Amino acid sequence: MIYKRNGRWSVRIDLDRDASGKRIRRAIGVYGTKKEAESAERAALKAREDGLDFNAAKSSVREVCDRFVDRCRAKGLAPSTLVRYKELFRDLDAIANVKLGDLNRAHVAGVYAAAAKRGLAPKTLRGVHTALHAAVAWAAPESAALRALTVAARDLPGIPKNLARALTEDEVRRLFAAAVGTPWESFVVLSLCTGARRSELAALRWQNIDFTRQTVRISNSLTVSEDGTLYDRPTKTSVERVVPLNGMAVEALRAHRARQNEERLRTGPAYQNDDRVFTDAFGQPWNPRSISNGFRRTAQAAKVNARLHDLRHSCATWLLQGGTDVRTVAAVLGHSNAVTTLTTYAHVMPGAQAQAVERITDRLRPAASEK
Predict the structure, then answer these.
(1) Does pLDDT of 164 surpass 80?
(2) Residue-wise over 224-250: b if at least 16 C-beta within 10 A, else e?
(3) Given the DSSP bridges, would you call strands 209-210 and 23-31 parallel, antiparallel or unpaired?
(4) Is residue 253 over pLDDT 60?
(5) Mean pLDDT for the stretch of residues 304-321
(6) Domain final position from 160, 190, 223
(7) pLDDT of residue 359
């Protein structure tokens, strides 16, 4: 409720009843105008619905961030998202004990400057800001702290636009050569030939591979939970897709299955067969992060400056430059729509625009010749 007292506007809301059945009421604050009081009341009522402590201003940044993660968990957000939030919030240690009511632009700008100085990538720094902004907006949507964060965004460094990079044929050959005889041999080949995401290949099972039709069905991705447990979940776009396998991919998979069967015999009863395509010596699936580290070592051995994701980019680029239409490439990659594909890879199709414009001339030339 809102009431006027001594020329100022006070806000008080009802909470749940105590053990004796008595209604618990809490004073929210005193404001100079009725409009400010109404805004505070709306924020407090929303906070009550969300189960928040209404003294958000007296809570530390760490407490607000922890509660935000708890709320996200209760809403059913993916564990990988919760893990990412926690990682981003660790970069706020310098202001972790600052009360939300005291948080200002100088605090936040100082954290951003220090993070940038120690080499935190601009994109990651933007992620820290976005996560903190979401937490404060949830805890105190009408607060000065939220306004300070909005202003502090101006202090963030710009994110350089990194165009999707395709590897050269020579780089790919060197990668393949470096991977021969290692556990990464077939993974690298399959990554390039299908354009599948790291987590999708990690979740792959032999039942998803049809050697007769030469296709692979990509239906899941392997994710790391908050406690480090690996589990399957739907793909990034929650859409299952069937991707054709070329001869190179089929050959690599057949050789990989033969090696895996030999390894399973050597390991014996300790091997846990879960039908996974990519496993360690005991049948356990590869951790997606370990896959990136393993590929990094392979690339270093090949003396190629590349990330694992560059194989996906290479697949898309080579398909587009070979004349494959954008919708088909989008289907292979598992993009939600062709717009995403076109936005990501427009720079690799400069000739396509020239060809499109030239078609106008081709259509008009017959008419011009008749004159």
Answers:
(1) no
(2) beeeeeeeebebeeeeebebebeeebb
(3) unpaired
(4) yes
(5) 92
(6) 160
(7) 60
Q: What is the pLDDT of residue 15?
A: 64
CB 156 within 8 A of CB 133: no
Q: Domain containing 227: what range?
A: 169-306
Q: Domain check: are 176 and 301 in the same one?
A: yes
Q: Are residues 71 and 150 in the same domain?
A: yes
Task: Give the whole-angstrom CA distance, residue 153 versus residue 176.
Answer: 44
For residues 104-125, average pLDDT: 86
User: β-strands 241-244, 230-234: how paired?
Assistant: unpaired
Write the pLDDT tens digit of every residue in 190-202. 999 999 999 999 9
Last residue of a domain, one of 160, 177, 210: 160
Look-up of token digits 């050697």: 211
C-alpha span between 329 and 319 (Å, rounded):
7
Does residue 49 or residue 291 have the better pLDDT? 291
Q: Is 154 found in the same domain as 117?
A: yes
Contacts 24+ apart (CB under 8 A), 328-334: 331/241, 332/194, 332/195, 332/241, 332/243, 333/195, 334/196, 334/197, 334/200, 334/218, 334/235, 334/236, 334/237, 334/239, 334/241
Same domain flag for 174 and 302: yes
Pull the structure tokens for residue 323: 């004349």
Q: 215-218 and 241-244 as β-strands: parallel, antiparallel, unpaired?
A: antiparallel
Tell me the pLDDT tens digit for each residue of 257-268. Answer: 999 999 999 999
Q: Are both 216 and 245 inside the same structural domain?
A: yes
Pair 126, 177 in one domain: no
Task: Give the residue-averaged pLDDT of 55-72.
Answer: 85
Number of domains composing the chain: 3
Whether residue 327 lies inside any domain: the answer is no
The verdict on 287 and 199 lying in the same domain is: yes
Q: What is the mean pLDDT of residues 297-320?
A: 93
- Residue 311 located in a structural domain: no
